[in-house]
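The records we work with from here on pair a chain with its fold. Each token is a code from a learned vocabulary of local backbone shapes. A record is reproduced here so that you can trace the correspondence yourselves:

_____
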Amino acid sequence: MKTDILTPQALFRKDIRFTIPPFQRQYVWTQENQWEPLWEDVRNISENYLENFDIQGGDNVSAQERTQRHFLGTVVIQQVSYAVTDIERREVIDGQQRLTTLQLLLDAIQLVSLEHEEKQISTRLSKLVTNDQDLITDKDDIFKLWPTTTDREAFKHAMDNHLAIDGFEDSNIVQAHKYFAESARFWIREKKGMEIDRLKALEIAVSGMLRMVVIDLDTVDDPYLIFETLNARGTPLLESELIKNYVISYFPPQDKEIIWSDLESKWWRTELKQGRLYRPRIDIMLDYWLEMRTREEVSANKVFRAFKKHSDDLDIQTVVSDLKRDLNYFQLFQQNPNSSVEEVFQYRIGVLQMAVFTPVLLYVLQYNKRYTGSILLILESFLIRRMICRSTTRGYSNLALELLKVLSECDALESPRIVQDFFLKQESESGTWPTNEELINACQNLPLYRLLTRGRLRLILEGVEDYLRIQYETEPEKVQKWLTIEHLLPQSWEEKWKLPENLDEAEARQRRNQLVNTVGNLTLIERKLNAQVSNNNWGVKRQALNKHSILRMNHELTSENGPMEWNESLIVERSTRIAKFVAKIWPRPT
């Protein structure tokens, strides 16, 4: 192992290829966290050099000696075997984000120098990012740095002056190159008549005034172990990246590029909200997959540790095969549901934010696929009834793991009945399955408009609308995310809605304010009514509902046989009716 402090010029001036191996993450540095601070340092170095150049009377060497340097951090590379006729090669074990950014910075200033027709500067900088064409055997070897598979096309289009960036505008690599080029152009133009001097100062800053500690490993050192134990600089490594590194270390070189590629698509890298944090979908699903496999809770920051523990006594190729198969089932379920039941379940579980039951879903998709629909309906009923009754969600993680253990011990044919019995037997506060009577009581008395999010409340009313449409018109169940919730008796009722005269005013007011936000006073409409109509008397409002709504749940309100007035008694009646519909949509055995 050899350690040196090198400038970009010293590191890149010879013909060499730095390859970022498959176990590394894609490029993730951003403008706010890394590009801007680096550019500020480069700009300050350039301005410091120009000041010293003036002070030293135009003596370039003396000016450089007096100019501040900037330390970029540490880079770990490893020697690899290569043919005698080939260019020298290294693998980047740590610091690939830093090296990639540096190459993009050098090339961006090279591009700006070309725009100013400074061919000598452009040529010198080009030699720091590209190899001699006469020495390479593969056209892609022209680049001194070669990223992971995910970033290669974007990198080529960013670094090649002759390739357009169309289709890669969202890539961090392309955006970084664009940021550095635009920043350089702006800074150079700040002093009219000094553009070329400032361009030369930039060249000196980026090629000779930045320093790195470069650790060059021998071929015998274990790169995977080094990568795993190094304290990552810049952006911390994700759990999925640690698992990827661990997994591919067991596979032969020819398989390393492809073994994890299925799980690096944009869909798997999409960040989703989990609690208060955002995590890539792949990290979340690895967490849930391990819980499904081990029947134990896995902390978000201990997924890699749990994966190693799970796979220690197993054949790693079998583990990876199982993982990819199970996650592929989940991806197909998400992107191409086989039935309306699966599609609606996805929507509803998302609204409920009950992804904690995803390990159960993964298990069912793998081992009980034939009965997926039946099991999902039972789970949906359990969760939605508890939501309406305002039951606690504490303990759901343990409940999901207990259900997994029960499922793993039963025959697939019996799984729907086993799941149903599992929920029926729950007696703890976090596990009871509300009865029809509890459901009716909640709908009659709880101000669900205030207690539930709009999405969750709309989910209930959408379910009722779908049920009614099927009952009366034999239409298939549909997900309707675009409907608006409307109060029948408005929340601001004082001006247009008189209180019953036969009741004590204080009691009547209290009763009305209690019932106005219960589910019996709520409906869905295609578009929001304006406040003047929404707060008007029942006659005006009923006419507006008839005009602006074709929903089945509003038909009973606006038809010839519908109520000619709207009051507290009718709200309670409708709450009861809706509760009974809910009991049929999400049934529970008595």
About this structure: The chain has three domains: 2-232, 254-434, 440-585.
